[in-house]
Every structure is written in structure tokens, then in C-alpha cells.
Specification:
single chain, alpha+beta, 2 domains, seven-stranded mixed sheet, 41% helix
Amino acid sequence: MDILGAFAEFETQSLAAIAAAADEAALEQVRVDYMGQKSGRIRDLQKLLGMADKDQKPVVGKRFNEVRTAISAALEERAVGLRAAAAETSSSFDVTLPGTVQRGGRLHPITQVINEFRELMGRFGFTVVDGPEIEDERHNFEALNIPEDHPARDPLDNFYLACAGAVSGGPVLLRSQTSTVQIRTMEQTQPPIRIVSLGRVYRPDTIDATHSCMFHQMEGLLVDRHVTMAQLKTVLSQFAHSFLGPDVEIRFRPSFFPFTEPSVEVDMRWGDTWMEIGGAGMVDPAVFESVGYDPEEYQGFAFGLGIERFCMKHFGVDDIRRFYENDLRFLSQFG
């Protein structure tokens, strides 16, 4: 009897049946028919092993193992292919079912206002610059003409950090105004200068409807020859009307700041009362001297505006704390 021929015939037939299996169920039936332990045709081949002559048994046994291994591998490979094909053509996805709505994110209202401030000041010819939020005392106080005994330097009115500055070696704190950026800019740039800086500032204020211990400011600085207070008032008025509309009422009140002289407070009408939105004035000559400018040759004006209060007016929000409570029901209104 040609035992090796029987092995070859079995291998050919089983591989053909495996290739012809159309799905996993048909493939499983092929496996049972050919390789099943109870009734599979592989059992007939095993019987032939006992009929082989003694000198043929090593060759017959090796060939039997080769056939069994080849068929097992073909079964596994075909099963993988059928599963992949079934996944690609699966009809479990019903295109008539309603889809799951993906909720898109949106910018925070303060971020929206900051972006619009950048665009508006760009139209006015101002360049946006940035500066660090952790500052040394020179940039936060001394260069701004704020002496050591000034109340603004009281440790209880600032967020000092328990570390020394990497460069200055002295005390460092979270900046209390964005005016620090104008000092850094003037230290590195000769006039004319026309810049704005927007960012976070920190003061340990009592938190209420119009105050927060962290808020955002826009600092503006213009330095050139023949700069006047009238130009400052024009820029601020035009900016407020451009952002809040032509009907907004703005007023200027005499005030005092160490780094400007003369100085003004800027208010806007809020219902039956007025809300302060910033401070401004002509740059004090002492500030120019601290950065190496000749105060006889150059003049300049500076202003700092509270971004949150513009945001409150713009969106009709009556409490600054709403912006920081992370209530999506509130924030999702401003898309």
C-alpha cells in the first residue's frame, strides 16, 4: 500500500477544503471533518502508521507530522483571514441610527476677549510683547519708581515666593501688574516704541463681584517725541468704543501712580454707576532714567486695563467669579 501517496492525497484534499471555506462556520466543519479527534479523517492516517514496514516507519512518521502541521497552520491562517474579512464587511453598524454628537470645545470668554484686544491694538499700530509672570523687585517696583517704603511693596499686598531669583539673587514675586513688561522692553529697545502686553497678574485682593486675586491686564506703552496726554485719551477712547460699541461712556479722573505723571483713572458707565477699568498717564521721567532714556528728548504714555471688567461689560456678566467657577453651563454660552 502506498502510505506516502495516501498522505499526499489527504493533504491536497484538506488544503483545498480549507481554501474553499466561505466563513468561520464552514471552516470549523472542515476542521472537524479532517482533523477531528473522534471522527476526523486524520484518524485513518494514524492507522496507516501501524501498517508501515519497520524500515519505513521513520520516514512515514516524519511525513505524517509534516502533513498534520501544514494543515493546522492552514486552518489558523484561514481563520485569521475570515475574521478580518468579517470585521470589514460587518453589518452590525446601522447607518439609519442617529449618530453620537461630538461636543466641540470653545475658547474661554476671557481668552476670546484677549484675542480681540490683540487684534484691535494691532490695528492701532501696537505690537504685542510678552514677559515673565515671576518677577524681581527691580522690574516690578524699582524701575517703575515705586520706592521701598511704598505701601504697594508691602509683603502682605504681594505674592512673594520662597526662593531667590536665578538672575537677581534677590526676592521674587508673582508680578502685580503688566507694567513690568514695559520696563523689560525699554531696557532692550530704543524709541520709538509702541507695544501692548496681555497676561495674568496677581494681587492678594479680597475676592468679590469685581475683584480677584488673579486677573488679566493689558498694558500699553508708547514712547516717542512730542507725545501728549491728548493722544493717550484718544487711544483709550477709540479702543473702548471699538470694543464695546459707540454708546459706551468713558471718563477720565485725575489720580496718582508712581510711574506716571500726570495720571488718570479710566472708568466706564455701568448702569447707574461707574466702574474703574484701568489706570493711565504720561510716563514719569524717573522711569525713563531707570532704563537709560533721556526724559528731555522723549515722552510717552502708558495704560493698564482690566480685561475681566471689559469682558463683564461685553458679555453682560455681573460677577467676575463666574469666569473662574468652571461651570460649563455658564461658559458654554460664549461660543
